[in-house]
């Protein structure tokens, strides 16, 4: 069984590419039914077309208000046959009706260790603050920005001379590993939500060696193939 997912993007779609790569190498039992972007020029749509995936440009500026856009977005996702939604750099908040339609089946990745530094430019905010540890968070989406139950987090050292670009590049290396892992857990039915906490059902898959990135911490640990 493979999980049909819609991927929402706004920019280059590097996390989308990581998902595609894992689907194509057989480590992620999912099928991308559509890639939808709120910016028609988003390179994520080009990535989708290169892999023969449905690419839908749905510019938010063409709609009179947020509610109208959310209704059209929900229709596009439903019409694609998606059973779950993965936000891969989608720079818009999802409205309550969209969240209700796919509650417990929407994932987002944020370039900071939530609940610290929510919102736009999390990596830059962390660098400016002078943290010594930074990272990324995959979480379920609810009606509040960057608020839903956490699935997996990865941490990397932050250096005194880091800025948004240098720290962001280090974080992104881990994003491309933990996001396919989280989607794998969702696709295989191993995630359950209990209040603010996410529980991961055990599996026999051996843990992966994460030492090739740099000194870091991933919790829960990555599994083989990620």
TrEMBL record:
Q: Which Pfam families does this UniProt record tie to the protein?
A: Formyl_trans_N (PF00551)
Q: Which GO terms describe its molecular function?
A: phosphoribosylglycinamide formyltransferase activity
Q: Annotated site (Raises pKa of active site His), which positions?
A: 146
Where is (6R)-10-formyltetrahydrofolate annotated to bind? Answer: 66, 91-94, 108
The terms describing its cellular component in GO are: cytosol
What class does this enzyme belong to in the EC scheme? transferase
Keyword field contains Transferase: yes
What is the annotated role of this protein in its UniProt record? Answer: Catalyzes the transfer of a formyl group from 10-formyltetrahydrofolate to 5-phospho-ribosyl-glycinamide (GAR), producing 5-phospho-ribosyl-N-formylglycinamide (FGAR) and tetrahydrofolate.
Binding positions (N(1)-(5-phospho-beta-D-ribosyl)glycinamide): 13-15
Can you tell me which family this protein belongs to? Belongs to the GART family.
Question: Active site: which residues?
Answer: 110 (proton donor)
Give the source lineage, highest ranks first. Answer: Bacteria, Pseudomonadati, Thermodesulfobacteriota, Desulfovibrionia, Desulfovibrionales
- This entry's Enzyme Commission designation comes to 2.1.2.2
Name the source organism: Solidesulfovibrio aerotolerans
Formyl transferase N-terminal domain location, by residue? 5-183
Q: State what protein this is by name.
A: Phosphoribosylglycinamide formyltransferase
